Amino acid sequence: MPNVQRDNASCDFGRLSTRPPRSVVRPSSVAEISALFREPAPQGALDALPLPRGCGHSSRGESLTDGIAIDMRGLATIHEVTDDRVVVDAGATWREVLAATLAYQRMPPVLTDYLDLTVGGTLSAAGIGGASHIHGTQAANVMELEAVTHAGQIVTCSPTRRSRLFDALRSGMGRQGVITKASLRLIEAPERVLSYRALYDSAAELIAAQGRLVADHISGQAKSSDFELKAVLYDAGGAPPEGLSPIDVEELTFTDFADRLSPDVEKLIELGEWGLPHPWGQVILPAARAAAVIEQTMAETTSADLGFGGVVLVKRFTPGSVPMLGAPSDAVLFALLRTASPGCRAVSEMLLANDRLYQRAAAVGGVPYPPRPLSN
Ligand SMILES: Cc1cc2nc3c(=O)[nH]c(=O)nc-3n(C[C@H](O)[C@H](O)[C@H](O)COP(=O)(O)OP(=O)(O)OC[C@H]3O[C@@H](n4cnc5c(N)ncnc54)[C@H](O)[C@@H]3O)c2cc1C
Hints:
25% strand, alpha+beta, Uridine Diphospho-n-acetylenolpyruvylglucosamine Reductase, domain 2, disordered N terminus, 19 strands, binds flavin-adenine dinucleotide
């Protein structure tokens, strides 16, 4: 079994802490993962159980362990695409999944804004995307999972078969077993999209519009002086969604739309911002209480609190049946995507601001996103 000592698995995208694993294993079969859980830990090793890792794009160290890190990118085959589903290894990225399904004009109903995340990684968080107001989270669009349990058993589970394990794995942050394969629902993919942009004066108006508008993909951002909404229609004519007064409209191929973050990511990499610490603060709020939390938080957030290129997402959505996420059924993702850029607030100050956000969210029945891992 390949065993690479101490690679970049010591840190994640958040770069808030360093935690070198005892070893990194990149399995090329499910049997190798099963063997990891069956092998006794070396004498004196007090580690936790082996922990799966996808692309390491977590931001609070969720993919870090001082035990064995399982590099899931070794298992990234797209097995089968049919009309209603795609069967993929958990280490495949959404970019790889989408490329395979688009060849058949099919797509997963919900894509994350950024495609270079693994299927196992986002199903372990939940996977919230611009279509989650219609289809729920990515975790709610799974038909079946194959997984390795902590006892080393290779099992399949679904909403009707071993449903408790199925519910524990989705949003389980890798602490309930290793997802090795997923059968994901597919829908028809559009060829082109029309993206309408509108501005609102308050969080309450943005959230109300997100709940009212009929569009295939809806996103929102809190900006320094207003709130921006983007409503996207798939393969539509020229009319904007009813009730929307857009300030502009953009036409894109679906492929460019799905991969819309790539140019920004390239720029951030070029500027050295991508490799800086990212003290992201993300919460899921009940829609009815979200506006007050957002307004209060934005009132105390300046550009120095967000860093260069900092973004604040506001997305109303319906989680679907994902018990481990613990989210309200009518929910708003409020995400302060901070970068500790030079000249901006220190990491410690950004983390303190996040703590205030988590407390504020908890007080109204909100939860952190991704969910806090139960152990490790
Ligand atoms: C630029 C960027 C954009 C993002 N956009 C979105 C977005 O639009 N929507 C959204 O919901 N999230 C988004 N995220 C957050 C992202 O969904 C999570 O951080 C996700 O967990 C990252 O996937 P990954 O493959 O990098 O997983 P990792 O960071 O490697 O792992 C994350 C967690 O999943 C567990 N895990 C990984 N693989 C498996 C597996 N096969 N079986 C069981 N557990 C596993 C790990 O143990 C860890 O706890 C974004 C993150 C970044 C950095």
